[in-house]
Amino acid sequence: MDSSLLLALVAVALPVLLHLLKTMAKKPRPGTAKLPPGSLGLPVIGQSLSLLRAMRANTAERWVQDRVDRYGAVSKLSLFGAPTVLLAGPAANKFVFFNSALPSQQPRSAQRILGDKTILELMGADHRRIRGALAEFLKPDMLRLYVGKIDGEVRRHLGERWAGRRTVTVMPLMKRLTFDIIALLLFGLGRSPLQDALADDLARVMDGIWAVPVNLPFTAFRRSLKASARARRIIAGITRETKAKLERGEAARSSDLIACLLSLTDDTGAPLLSEDEIVDNSIVSLVAGQDTSSILMTFMVRHLAGDPDTLAAMVREHEEIAKSKGDGEALSWDDLAKMKFTWSVALETLRLVPPVFGSFRRATQDLEFDGHLIPKGWQVFWAASLTHRDAAIFHEPDEFKPSRFENQSAAAAPPCSFLAFGAGPRICIGMEFARIETLVTMHYLVRWFRWKLCCKEDTFARDPMPSPLHGLPIELEQKALP
């Protein structure tokens, strides 16, 4: 254990230990459900380091499955300083995603870094208000307007950063592409020093999301806090500038996300969202919009390098679409509807490598599931792999089979089995936006380039999101001029 982590653990030991002792002392009432089997482990540390090591070693799926094999579908443990119940299976997922007494609960580090007024943290009427505001920006008639802009950003990016190169490293390029797209559509930011500064800060924000939440020098958490503060100042400045543009008639509600959120009012005509709420949710939108889509597209590239049949089928699909377009004509909303096989490949990639390994909820009251008590204040943890890799749900779960999703849904599987976008009232609000980004990018990528992997070892680690070895360097061959 390195010295900075040891100091961090010592710094939080006393308050967290007192919290654990208080919650452990809570005994079920006679005749009621009992605590789940399992162990809370060592004070403060619990099973946190063990899980983080497994994620970085690409054995996290095995780690959670071993707990299920040992204790069953419901077990107790301690993660990131809080007593936790791990739940497994479709019924458990449904219980988690549709239970109003289990609101989202991010690790303390994520709360501090992302803010406490985000769609991830708020509950009840506040959550519905924020979600409704973001949904205004992501409704279908707005999304139709974004296809052409995304098309232009993808072609520019591939032309400038891929074309003419013999080798490229996919992950950082995909992260920059998705950042450029979302910065344009969220903030109206084109290529500029301000955009570059925000991109650099956002990369550092993610480093401390699942870190020990102690603000000490030289820790990932300290670096992330500082980066988050800088990013907030940038976004707050953009918000004030956009507000002034709206007042002068130089911007419209459909210009970008900030303009949309600033234009929303309640029944009295007052602003629907405060500036702090706009800034916090813009940070979350940046993180979610950049990382999840870039990871999906990176792992699609990774898989297609070794699956010529799937790649050939995708190329055929996109060449057919290209035949109906004029030279240089951008893709349209209707073109995306024709990319059914490509989206099936994307969904199968998400099944095998979900960007979000799992997440937390918090019990706001005593709950019971499958005869076990979940005490008020405890965390509930779910992991996507427990159903994504279940042979009883997905036949031959380790095989790559896009045909599982050929009906464009996971309808063949039990409800709450495919969790790449979550489920229930908090299902990913940007799911359709991610679909547009992915389909447009893959349309040009498979038509313009061939590639093969540079690394013989085809593995990845999670920290906390998946990243392939060395960022996935590939050898590139250009088929057509962008």
Automatic annotation (TrEMBL):
Similarity annotation: Belongs to the cytochrome P450 family.
Q: What are the recorded GO MF terms, alphabetically?
A: heme binding; iron ion binding; monooxygenase activity; oxidoreductase activity, acting on paired donors, with incorporation or reduction of molecular oxygen
GO biological process annotations for this chain's record?
sterol metabolic process
Going by the UniProt record, its keywords in alphabetical order are: Heme, Iron, Metal-binding, Monooxygenase, Oxidoreductase, Signal
Q: Which Gene3D superfamilies match?
A: Cytochrome P450 (1.10.630.10)
Q: Which cofactor does it need?
A: heme
Where, in this chain's numbering, is heme bound?
A: 428
What superkingdom does the record give? Eukaryota
Q: What is this protein called?
A: Cytochrome P450
Q: Where is the signal peptide?
A: 1-25
